[in-house]
Amino acid sequence: MMLPDLVSFDPDRGLISFCGRRAVLVQADAMGALRKELIDTLGVDIAKVILTRFGYSCGQSDARHLHALMGDDAVSEFVLAGPKLHMLEGVVCVETHALLIDPETGHYDMAGVWKNSYEAEQHVRLFGPSSDPVCWTVSGYASGFSSVAFDTPMICIEDQCVGRGHAECSWRLISADICGPEHDEHRRLFMPLNLQQHINLLEQKVQQRTADLAASESRYRDLVDNLSEIVFSLDGNGQLVHLNRAGRRRLGLSADGEMVPLARLMTMPHRRRLARFLRQVGDSGSEGRIETALRSLHGEEIPAQMQISPVMDGERLAGYRGLAIDISQRQARERKLTEYASSLESQLAQATRLAGLGQFASGIAHEINNPMGLISAYAEDLLDTIGDGGGGEAVDVERLRRGLATIQEQAYRCKYITQNVLSFARDQVVNLEPTNLGALVRDKVAFFSDRAGGASLDIRLTINDDLPPVRTDPSLIGQVLLNLLKNAVEATESNGRLMVSLGRFRSRIRLEVADDGPGLAPEIMEKVFDPFFTTKEPDRGTGLGLSICYGIVRSLGGTITCGNRPAGGAWFRVSLPIIAPEGSVER
Fold this sequence. Notes:
With 587 residues, this protein is of the alpha+beta class. 48% of the residues lie in helices and 22% in strands. The protein is built from 15 helices and 19 strands. It has helices at residues 28-42, 44-70, 75-89, 118-127, 136-150, 184-188, 195-226, 245-251, 268-284, 328-389, 397-425, 437-452, 474-491, 522-525, 545-555; strands at residues 7-10, 15-18, 21-23, 93-102, 107-115, 154-160, 169-175, 230-235, 240-243, 288-295, 301-313, 316-326, 433-435, 458-463, 470-472, 497-505, 508-515, 559-564, 570-577. The strands form five sheets. Strands 9-8-12-11-10 form a five-stranded antiparallel β-sheet. A five-stranded mixed β-sheet has the order 14-16-17-19-18. Strand 10 and strand 11 form a beta hairpin. The chain is elongated and about 175 Å long. The two termini are 110 Å apart.
């Protein structure tokens, strides 16, 4: 008897029969959907038992009907009919590699491979590779069919499986009577399953988890409602859907009243800022903070820092949840700190002015005391000299002349000091006019050379040709140049070389006075323009010359800097702006 002869099709009546029984064709994807539903609903372990026992029942039924038709044919032919049925049904391709039948000892063994298992393909498609064999229905069918064929309980064990990443599925049939403890897991699959009991247990777990979730949600709501901060939820359009008890109280809403539009709780500028912020939070999908202000229904404005997170439903923005913290007290503290800091600053400025005034007064007193001490000493000496002549002795006229000359010299020095102090303290009267700096520098250098030593003074002058005019005060810039020349001569102790240069540097004219003296120490360079700072002897300088130069140059819109020459000596540079030609822009 050929197995295909046992199958008949009657499409007009919608019937398919196998071995005289009605059969149906089921798509492999439909069986895959059933597998997924069982696993997702009941879990892998229960789904595995159900599908294995389903296959076992199918195998038993097919074997019994075939036995009724085939009669007492050879057991080997009968048992091989099962794999052929699977191939006929499109379930799997079966290759048998070993078959041992010994009815006298009751020892039966059978092994082989499965190829193109629909079950392995569906499992991998739906769940990906598995760590265990997945041909549960096929294994169950082989167990049920062979148990009828051999007339003894048999168990099919799948050692390798395509669902685990193997190239093919390998299997073996062994007698259940000789299975050891290592096969308890397989034996469990064929034990009766009380599905209702499992469903009841699952329902109990679901009910318990639902109750736990409800209790947790209740505790969460109680916690949120009892917070002192304002906790709220917004829908996807930014409208209020929940507000905790503290928020209702602060914003003037009744404890159990309906929500009010968010627009009623914010002024228009704050509402617009919040709308832009919500869009940013929704687009980024991350939490953000913003400082804004809420307004209660009673008209009270509440400065608040809002911390808002998006609530996502998959890829869709479902709404927002947030926390609003009242920052009015913090802002009040910040205002007080700002006011206090401003009053630090004013007191510090006053103290700085007083300290500067004290330093200024101390410097003046120090500078004036030196010549005044000499004046007082010589006046006393002259009085003694005149007193000595009162006894009839001749007065030492030469001594009187020297003393009076010294007194006059020191009086002039006091006048010079006071003039410098006045020049330093008051604003310079600046008379700006277009000036040919080249001619001015030549005249001042020649005047200084004649006055300070004539031909014995070595001054090297370099002036670039065709320099543009400079809008400055000739008198004041001349005073600066003479002061710089005087300092340079004193730095070289009147026997060195001075270099004076005048040239254009970008949009400015640069005047430089340099010497080949000892140069400026770093600690001196930092203080050289400070008032009353000097390295000269007490009776040779006031420490105001460079300070006055600094003030003059700044009043002329220029800068003055200093440094040391690589070859030795110091340089001082005055930089003044050039007059831009009409219709042009200096760069």
